[in-house]
Amino acid sequence: MNSPMKIAVLISGNGSNLQAIIDHQHKHPEHYEVALVISNRPNAYGIQRAQKAGIKTLAIDHTNFADRTSFDQAMQAELDGHGVDLIVLAGFMRILTEEFTQHYLGKMLNIHPSLLPKYTGLNTHQRALDSGDQLHGLSIHFVTPELDGGPVILQVLVPIEKDDNEDSLANKVHEQEHVAYPMVVEWFAEQRLELKDNQVWLDQNCLQDPVILNDLHPE
Q1: Measured CA distances, 162 to 62, 156, 165, 168, 184 (Å)
Q2: Are strands 5-11 and 32-39 parallel, antiparallel or unpaired?
Q3: pLDDT tens digits for 35-48?
Q4: How far apart (Å, rounded) are the C-alpha atoms in residues 124 and 158?
Q5: What class is the 1-104 domain?
Q6: What is the mean pLDDT of residues 106-119?
Q7: Could you report the per-residue pLDDT of 131-185, keeping only the tens digit for each?
Q8: Which of 98, 111, 131 is nearest to 15 (CA)?
Q9: Alpha-carbon distance 4 to 34, whole Å?
Q10: Do domains 1-104 and 111-219 have the same CATH topology?
Q11: 215 pLDDT band (50/70/90 cuts)?
Q12: Which helix (H) or strand (E) is 177 found in, with range?
């Protein structure tokens, strides 16, 4: 029996997606192990979540580095030193250098609160409302040097109701994130998911379009 895949999670804040991944690990310990959590903000609440779960944590404060390259090199040294198999970005609010993303190409996932390629960057929920969209949602993708531009693995559709505002829409998307992200991490850990030639392969099939799901429910 193969040992569980070692996961590192990078965070900057509250760490709610980190918590969802930790909770999923506790239910399915044979699939993956969150071996390391790194935050670029020493006071991020997600660090406390990880420590409570007995996970090794590191605070690598980006303000202590002269530039993005030196900060990314410090993270890379820790990640490689811990022998992680997959890096999961969970609310990590730093733009990564091309050198870093190329080093982990095919081994790094991100979640974005929109239906990419719509609304890259920030303030996605308000932008969807301002555009009069009827559907919003989330995308989970492989990380490439292009910001929010890596091949999309899965999207979850979230309908926008007449009375939705930015907060209510964000809450609905977060609820879906907490189910979808651990599921995709598990796909990778089970070696069902890979990036080949800048395309997503799932169960040995090349995906022409992302997996599209609606209204996921917690286990």
Answers
A1: 41, 19, 9, 11, 31
A2: parallel
A3: 999 999 999 999 99
A4: 13
A5: alpha beta
A6: 97
A7: 999 999 999 999 999 989 999 999 999 999 999 999 999 999 999 999 999 999 9
A8: 111
A9: 9
A10: yes
A11: confident
A12: helix 166-189
Among 112, 125, 136, 178, the active-site one is: 112
3-state helix, strand, coil in the chain (%, to 5): 35, 25, 40
> pLDDT value at position 217?
84
Contact by Cβ (8 Å): 22, 32? no
In the block, tokens 């790094």 appear at 108
12: Cβ contacts below 8 Å, ≥ 6 apart: 39, 40, 41, 44, 46, 91, 92, 93, 94
**Domain residue spans in the chain?**
1-104, 111-219
* CATH domain 111-219 topology: Rossmann fold (3.40.50)
Nearest to 39 by CA among 52, 49, 29: 49
Catalytic: 174? Answer: no
Is this prediction's pTM over 0.90? yes
Q: Which helix (H) or strand (E) holds 47?
A: helix 45-52
